[in-house]
Amino acid sequence: MIISIGYVLLLFFKSWTDRRRRNMLSQAIKKGLGQGSLYIQRLGEGAMSRSRATEIARSALVNYRQNVSEAPLLEWGDLMLTNVSPMQTIYLGSWTDYYHPSAEPPGQDDVTVLIEASRPSDLGKFLQHEFQVPPESKIHLMSLGTMEAWHSGTPFGILVTCSPESLVTLAIGLVDNTLTLEEDLEVHSIMTVQTEGRAGSLFMNPEIDVTEAPANNYNQSSIQMLPDERPMKDKILASFIRKNQDQVSDMWSNESLASTTDIAKLDMLSELASVDGDNVVDGSFLETGSGEGLSEFEAVETSSVQSCPMGDSQKLEPLGKPPNVLIYTGKIDSVRKFDRVKKVLEQCLDVEKYVIYHLKHEDIDREPWIDNTILLVLATKKKYQDSHAAFMQYFMSGGRILGFGSGFDTELLGQTMVRPENWITQLNYGGWTDVSLISGSYVYDVNDVRLEGSHVASIGIDKDNHVSMAKVTLERKDVVSCAILSQVLLDKEADDLGVTPEIFNTLKKSNSDRFEILTDLLTNLGIDCNTRAMPVQTPAVLLATSEDVKAKFFNSIKHRLSSGVLKYGGQSLLFTEDTTAVVENSLLPVLMAGRKYGESFSLSVYKKSLGAKVLGNTVFFMEVVPTTMTILDGLLFSVPDDIGLIVVARQQTSGKGRGGNAWLSPIGCAMFSLHVRIPQNSNLGQAVSYLQHITSLAVVNSVCNMEGYEDTDLRLKWPNDIYYGHHMKLGGVIVKSTIMDGIVHATIGCGFNVDNSNPTICINDIVDMVNKEQGTQRPMFTTEQLIARTVTEIEALIGQFQKEGVDSFRKMYYDKWLHSDRVVRLESENDLEVTVRGLDDFGYLLVETDGGEKISVQPDGNSFDMMRNLICLKQR
To answer: 63: which residues sit within 8 A by CB, 6+ positions away?
Structure first.
């Protein structure tokens, strides 16, 4: 009894002490914020000298000054909190962005914190301590804020945005030695900082001295020049200086991982169209099956108009355009409005065939969207004359427009105000009668045709016989333009209005009719509305080329598991033999036994086709996953050198491509993310940009190196696309890299169309076509077979590159690429005409001016638009 009472008192005292310490620390941090940087350290064994702190800060590129307040803000046991003034500044030129596709914007009171860590001097002692700390007592850094950027070397630096309350928790974890980074790194200091510039890529531009840490600079890494060619460089970059004074990025990256589905930076494609797991032409904003470039359709003539049972209306066959649907919602509250309209459209059209993007007002004249859009949805009543010219240009080029009470309507048709805004109408449309829907203020005058030569038809009327919907068509030679204008606001939900319960119920009763009508309108505009439910993410199945490899992998990560869970950022992995486990929030089960979720992947076919010694010998297979690119993030530095990790997906729901492009990933597309290690001081380590070229060539070789398939017309388009001939894209590549202890850890994301004929073309389509033409019976490919063969080729090409250098690889690459000696324009202020000469030593595109000056163009966001003989430079 006495022991129990003593135990309770002890717990009470500990709880009281912890609360008191937290309150005192919270008050000290609140007091110190805004008075320079807060510097938090552990005294005693973990204490750090002032000179050591200065050395660490300088090595992390912090503008460190030794103006430390004389009296610390707080001393409590082994913890000391001090002010360092002024606020310390980190220049982000040599830092690398974290990839967090769904990060929340920082809160008003959030602070930026520099966490510095290093490899423990006594790893055994460190690991022993890690095991002794109960899992429930560990404080995981990545659960307390948003990882913004990292800096390799000693010390290892991480920038985190977090709340002041989370900063208190970090400080407690530091002093209690319970703060963990999951990567055998020991935290030794915490400091609040401010940042300048922009974190970017991994490899230093040799022309820039980062020690100068310029406060304002433009991104010079997007176009690199040979050392003796500065005059031309100045001309080409002149237009960038004015636009990018606030951006600093002294390093390059294969990938700019944006997190939005905006139009982002359009990857204009060449005179070749394209195909990536789902595809596109001219260069849409879309990236598909394979990821990297934009997916494309082969350009085809606009299809003929067919009669439709809907009276005077006409049903148009699908266009041969990229499967991009753009939504324009004006200037005010546009993001919220876009999300609302997108949600409605996703319930009607085939989400596996189309990608929906936000056309922002500022992008109308800046981004080349007109030739890359299959449908433009206008959902704002505001009239912005500066946008109407572009919308008219799109319409006249054969575009399809769907307007919901749009201010653009008056460019095509007269209208009259009859009611106040957002009133309830009873619509009669086709076979639907008296459907209660939300309407705008106007009705149309079908006799007041504003565009000469156009045909206007009434397709929907209200109970007072006012025209509420009209269809405007314009036929000119081989071009058919079509716009459906609607004052019935089919994009609005019942709960978008502050209505009475009676009206709300009335609108809800008509909701199914609303979607049926919208679906019919989209169909008559040539949009495929065979909707499919979005598949649910499934667990991963751990497979390997042998049981020994599988056991070795698991043994290498056991020390990091807590109750079977490996925590890392937003994605935690649960290694389990429970085949009934399901995905919950950010916890992804990895099934160690059983094939409940892996039946569609043939391990035997994969193993038979895999000739690599290391790469791809350990497989995470997933039936459905948002994206394969993040699954391996928490494992890269933990597995031994003879374990080659690969993630293979049957289907992706939120695939990511280069520059933030969306990436359609249907069943039948080969999709994988592969981990490779490259010594930084090796041939390839000094030119890591070549990894994307190696992977692209590996995909081509996986087919063309097979007996009977040597003449398959597969080609390469810079920077990272796989083509059939000159017009159809079959795949693409995306690479993100991290450096740790002199090793470049790269995750290669690759996807290419193998057995998915829609929406464009696949490799098996080509095989079937040749079989019919030549009377042959060549077997079709499987995704497992070509993924394994591609991984084998990647390992072989890397080995050859390391042994023989860049010249040997370039000879093989040029044999398959599409650009040699092509004369193109370099899109800049002066639109210089240049000739493509090849790849430079870093893997950048090498072009030459008429005057003989050579220019190297980095692949990060820059691309070919061969339909216009143009190299499009990414706007920074």
So the answer is: 88, 89, 90, 91, 213
